[in-house]
Write a structure and sequence with these properties.
By secondary structure, the protein is an all-alpha fold. The chain has 14 helices and no strands. The chain is globular, with a radius of gyration of 19 Å.
Length: about 270
Amino acid sequence: MSSVAELAKSRELFVNLTLRELRGKYKRSLLGWTWSLLNPLATMVIFTVVFRFFLKVEPDPGNPSGLHVFAIFLLCGLLPFNFLSNGITGSMGALIGNSNLIQKVFFPREILVAASIASWLVSFWIELGVLALILVLAGNFVLPWLLPALGLVLIQTMFVIGLGLLLSVLNVYFRDVQHFVGIILQIWFYATPIVYPIRVVAAALEKYPAIFTLYKLNPMVRFVEAYRDCLYDLRFPPLLDTSYLFGVSAATLALGVLVFTRLEPKLAEEL
């Protein structure tokens, strides 16, 4: 309870640190915040050319929306994964990058990680807003489905913060963590149905249902499918999937807080 009280008292610091992250993200770049849109759009173009035209990956039509556009199908999965990847990568450098501040001033160190992730959350919101505009122009009246999509954003934010707290403090003690996580994120990307529909995996593992069940335990599989349910298909995600995501996110957040709290007292010495 004392930790919660300290965090509540430090909310102004959290806002200022988040604003600092936002201002510094594209500092001295000519295009500024336009890069937050150009980066995922460039990735979308590359993957669309490679997977749609060269490898002939065919997405399922939206049910019941009827939408059948590979680029939009791709973005609905790419943006949530980018939030995960950027949030984890940014949080791992949050403590090391602010070592001077940690050594000189006492404040809840969790705020550094949360502020880094919050800055990427703002970028995610902007990207989702642009995606919603694209969907409307494509004939998908997505506006009523933005509310459940925002609910998914909140659940995913819990998940990312939990991982961010865990990995950021471990990275202080073991600097190999950041390199190891970089490899894991690459594997995680292709182990998630972002550039291919999940039916491809179901067909390939038809004779191995246990492996397919293990595949679906990957939280990002459920997150990507849930976002597509809301934005691409225009329907509610299955209640079981949403409950699973909430449970995994809450458990990850609890684990992250527990490990961070245990290792935080010696951060100044390690840095």
